[in-house]
Amino acid sequence: MSLIKRKPQRRVAVIGAGLSLFMRRALDTGKELAYYAASQALQTAGIRLKDIQAVVMATAPDAFDGVHMKGEWLLDGAGGVGKPYLRAYVGGGSGVFSIISGWMMVASGLFDLVLVVAEEKMSSCQPHPQGAFLTIFDHTIERPLGPNLLWIFSLEQQRYMAAYGIRNEDIALVSVKNKHNALAHPAAQVAAHLTVKDILDSDVVAWPVHRLMVSPISDGAAAVVLASEQVARRLSDRPIWIQGVGWCLDTSYWGNRDLAYPRYVEKAAWMAYEMAGVTEPRKQIHVAEPYDPFAYKELHHLEGLQLADRGQAPEDLARGRFDRTGELPSCPSGGLMGVGNPIAAAGLMKICELFWQLRREAGARQVPGNPERGVAQAWGDLMQIGTVAVLGVR
Amino acid sequence: MTRKSITNVSQARVWRGTMPVQYLYTAGVAGERFFQTLRRKGVFAVTTCAECQVTYLPPRLYCERCFADLSGAWAEVAPSGRVHTYTVVHEDQDGRPLDPPQVVAFVRIDGTSGGLIGRLLHLRPQDVQVEMPVDAVLAPPRRRRGGMDDITGFAPRRVLPRRRTP
Fold first, then answer.
1. What is the total count of domains within chain B?
2. Band (B4; pLDDT cuts 50, 70, 90)
């Protein structure tokens, strides 16, 4: 059954990308971080703010920056003053949803040039941004039991391991790969050369999740410029096309979800693939940036994205299939585990990475061959949304 | 089963909750320079976009209209301006009467496109006038900590003798 009514008429391209440093505690305000990324994206697109017709800002819960209605507060840093402006917000999925929102604005014919910015300043939230997550659970049924996100992820990882007979060593390899990939990323916060033993020697936060299997608290911003086909061809000799987008939410009762397999990611992926004309993802996708806030999540999401068989992603990882030089490079950027995780900005960072990889501008991170199509994915809301974008060179 | 509605809201049982987080904010690159200048020199640091002819107070690192980089476009202005608008506050946040009532103004700072909110000091509510010139009353230099508390409020500018703000 088709997941989309009809293929959109207008094509949309990414013509510029920008990124701030990702760091533990920035002196810079969220507005200033957003400005660095946004102005860099405009510069690489060869345009000025006055050329931009509308702005999308993605930023996750207000409770991180500690400014209620922070989307509006961040307006000037995102270049949105005096323009149609939209805050795109689906929790952790916001970074990839931001480009989906911008794509809708251009594909619909409303605008030809849209600036998409994502920001998060998590260091403001004390004693730990986890505190802001304590209140995402149902106030009467769940909160009296005291769950936090780490419990939930540990329960999910354990179910994934039990369902397919996966060992924690297999999952720790994600941290090793991504932190190593991030050594080549100039904006990276937690790049390192580590072994599986180092990962498993780090503190157990909530078994089976060790500290080095969790992405860090980060401050940072990312941005891209989107253009309609006609404008993209005029402004850029190497536009990167948004070939397909998809998103899907599972039930908000986490206890009613399939914990071993993210069905909502599968549905979002097929929506994007259908739009992109992708029928055999493993052959037609050449580089992937799945969401990796926890080590096991990259594997979970690779399976949801149809890039590995269910329960087989750990084995594929172990034999090098997802290495930067492997058959299907996954998180060549270094991902959230290596570059850092300023929530919404981390998702858009993945889009930036596809842009640079597909233009062959990724420098030391460049995947070999001639990648023609990539997929980026983020995950969030109440651990229930998959947001997917397929980008390609034509 | 019919659905019964609660007609007396006091019968509804409630669960109490809090969002248990606190915050550590930074002033930012531009904000830090503004406060250090205020603390050391008792003047306001501002940035100017020459192209848009806007002088930002509070200062910004970038022009919000054209995105020009203003990190090298700093200047300093005296902490004085004019009452742009004002209000007389008679009750505090919890509805308790304020005696005497407090006069709060938005002061446009001379030579800038912006301004600050502050208490108006040393004058009676009936004597406040829109556009009246005022000077910032700053905490003594040794007591300044580089925050908004360094500005105690604004007071009518004295004509003669001109007393310089410390």
1. 1
2. low
Is the CB of B60 less than 8 angstroms away from the CB of A76? yes
Q: How far apart are CA A119 and CA A257, in angstroms?
A: 29
A56: closest CA among A119, A120, A124, A123? A119
Residue B13 inside a domain? The answer is: no
pLDDT tens-digit readout, B124-149: 999 999 999 999 999 999 999 999 99
Asked whether residue B6 is domain-assigned, the answer is: no
B63 falls within a domain: yes
For chain A, which domains are there?
12-127+215-392 (3.40.47.10)
Where residue B131 sits, what CATH number does that domain have? 2.40.50.140
Domain encompassing residue B106: 28-156
Interface of A with B (CB under 8 A): 25-29, 31-32, 35, 38-39, 42, 48-50, 63, 66, 76-77, 79, 81-82, 123-127, 129, 131-132, 134-135, 139-140, 143-144
User: Cα(A282)–Cα(A328) distance, rounded to whole angstroms?
Assistant: 8
- Say yes or no: ipTM exceeds 0.85: yes
Choose among A116, A54, A51: nearest CA to A85.
A54
Q: Nearest-CA residue of chain B relative to A78?
A: B64
Tens-place pLDDT, residues A2-34: 888 888 889 999 999 999 999 999 999 999 999
